[in-house]
């Protein structure tokens, strides 16, 4: 067990409240990973003041110099990859193969940032007047509040921290209370790589106290949040009233379509990975499977057989396929949706129960669950469950499949398996989602491409890739007149 402290102005400090909370292993609740400060608005204010002071110097460091620090961050993360992955599995539960991938995504994001710092372009465009140049450049905004979820404890914080800092901003981050240790270790890596004191500050604690304090502080210029749509609406409301920049990446109810001409074995692999990878605890998880009618019975028979062979257990075991849910409360939420599905008339094909065999009795395990004969109006087909529960729906043809696919309030990720090139391209056109996969599951985003969704999945911003830097910067338009005379743009004085 390790005792963690807030990271403010380059120093490790206890909360002024003197209170703490424990972080435990969801695969073995007896194991305490660490003890963390239960912080207050006073701690947040101290962190923001530190970030505000650091901003004045940090923003003046050239982009390429800041990018060199990002390169060093990547190098240190490479050295500590296995250490970070094992910590993440212990505090979040997902299997070690996935946490290694989570760390690798953070490494890749740092490497991308190290390149971006030398090529983040503005535009140079012609003026309508002679002897005059027009260009744009991107400028930082100030102190950002970053609020991150528990399901990707390294990757998502790096999606926010790296572009935020590289752009010249400073930040205060509140990591999820279920997975605070990963961000704590990441902050130490950034300090070791050369990020000056105060540029990144970490404050631990709950959303009602720490999150609200960040959100409402007048010196916070913007908030980047990943989490539920309910909390996202609250953040958007407060930011809107105060004209703060606001980036929201919210929930999903992602659908995977399998047409009768698809490679069924490939589709089966994709469904299993999309639905039960990360124990279904991804915003992009495959939570709806839409099967063309003629293959419905065959596919669900094969799916049931494969799902029941998935091995549950502690994610540090290399042979385990599915780890625990992150908490007892999350497991109860998942089970409550299973009960809802039964009451709605869906047929439980497999799973639907707590798993307590052997060592799993000490953790929050739940069997991979599949409902069939689900209709689009059922709650289990409409609401985000965030667990290993898959709803299977029937479609008579491609057109109905697309209609079902789009029939939710979310619009994050979608997938279609088909050998028909025309239908694949039509699905790309018609899918009301920010991400579309062809012959691949609904999960698997790459860090150098935009990530985000439509409808209730967010507010239009895109993390990942070049678009992340648009979130954390303002466009400044510059006019340089070297004519030596007063020229009046938009006044009709051009003589030809």
Automatic annotation (TrEMBL):
Gene3D superfamilies in the record: Aldehyde Dehydrogenase, Chain A, domain 1, Aldehyde Dehydrogenase, Chain A, domain 2
UniProt keyword list: Oxidoreductase
UniProt domain Aldehyde dehydrogenase: residue ranges: 16-478
GO-annotated molecular function: oxidoreductase activity, acting on the aldehyde or oxo group of donors, NAD or NADP as acceptor
Coiled coil: none
Annotated SUPFAM superfamilies: ALDH-like (SSF53720)
CDD domains in the record: ALDH_AldH-CAJ73105
The keyword Transmembrane helix is assigned to this record: no
PANTHER family to which the protein is assigned, alphabetical: ALDEHYDE DEHYDROGENASE-RELATED (PTHR11699)
Family note: Belongs to the aldehyde dehydrogenase family.
This protein's name: Aldehyde dehydrogenase
Native source species: candidate division WOR-3 bacterium 4484_100
């Amino acid at each position: 067990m390790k005792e963690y402290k807030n990271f403010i102005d380059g120093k490790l400090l206890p909360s002024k409240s003197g209170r703490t909370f424990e972080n435990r292993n969801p695969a073995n609740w007896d194991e305490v990973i660490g003890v963390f400060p239960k912080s207050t608005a006073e701690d947040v204010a101290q962190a923001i003041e530190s970030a505000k002071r650091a901003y004045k110097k940090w923003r003046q460091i050239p982009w390429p110099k800041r990018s060199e620090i990002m390169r060093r961050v990547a190098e240190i993360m490479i050295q500590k990859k296995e250490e970070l992955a094992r910590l993440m599995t212990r505090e979040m539960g997902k299997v070690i193969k996935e946490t290694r991938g989570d760390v690798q995504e953070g490494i890749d994001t740092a490497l991308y940032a190290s390149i971006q710092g030398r090529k983040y372009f503005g535009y140079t465009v012609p003026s309508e007047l002679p002897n005059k140049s027009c260009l744009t450049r991107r400028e930082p905004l100030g102190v950002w509040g970053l609020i991150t979820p528990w399901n990707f404890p390294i990757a998502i914080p790096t999606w926010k921290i790296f572009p935020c800092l590289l752009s010249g901003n400073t930040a205060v981050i509140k990591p999820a209370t279920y997975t605070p240790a990963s961000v704590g270790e990441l902050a130490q890596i950034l300090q070791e790589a050369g990020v000056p004191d105060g540029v990144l500050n970490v404050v631990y604690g709950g959303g009602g106290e720490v999150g609200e304090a960040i959100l409402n502080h007048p010196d916070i210029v913007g908030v980047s949040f990943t989490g539920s749509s309910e909390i996202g609406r609250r953040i958007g409301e407060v930011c809107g009233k105060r004209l703060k920049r606001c980036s929201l990446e919210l929930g999903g109810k992602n659908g995977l379509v399998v047409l009768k001409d698809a490679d069924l074995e490939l589709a089966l692999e994709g469904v299993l990975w999309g639905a039960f990878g990360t124990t279904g605890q991804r915003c992009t998880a495959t939570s709806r499977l839409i099967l063309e009618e003629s293959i419905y019975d065959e596919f669900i028979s094969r799916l049931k057989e494969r799902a029941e062979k998935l091995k549950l257990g502690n994610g540090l075991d290399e042979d385990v396929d599915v780890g625990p849910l992150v908490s007892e409360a999350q497991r109860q939420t998942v089970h409550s949706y299973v009960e809802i599905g039964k009451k709605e008339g869906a047929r439980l094909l497999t799973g639907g129960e707590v798993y307590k065999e052997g060592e799993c009795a000490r953790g929050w395990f739940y069997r991979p669950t599949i409902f069939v004969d689900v209709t689009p109006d059922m709650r289990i087909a409409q609401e985000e469950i965030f667990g290993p529960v898959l709803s299977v729906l029937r479609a008579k043809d491609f057109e109905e499949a697309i209609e079902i696919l789009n029939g939710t309030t979310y619009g994050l990720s979608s997938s279609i398996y088909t050998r028909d090139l025309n239908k694949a391209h039509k699905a790309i056109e018609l899918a009301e989602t920010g991400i579309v996969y062809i012959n691949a599951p609904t999960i698997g985003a790459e860090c150098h491409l935009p990530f985000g969704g439509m409808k209730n999945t967010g507010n239009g911003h895109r993390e990942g890739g070049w678009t992340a830097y648009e979130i954390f910067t303002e466009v400044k338009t510059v006019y340089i007149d070297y004519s030596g005379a007063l020229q009046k743009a938009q006044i009709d004085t051009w003589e030809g």
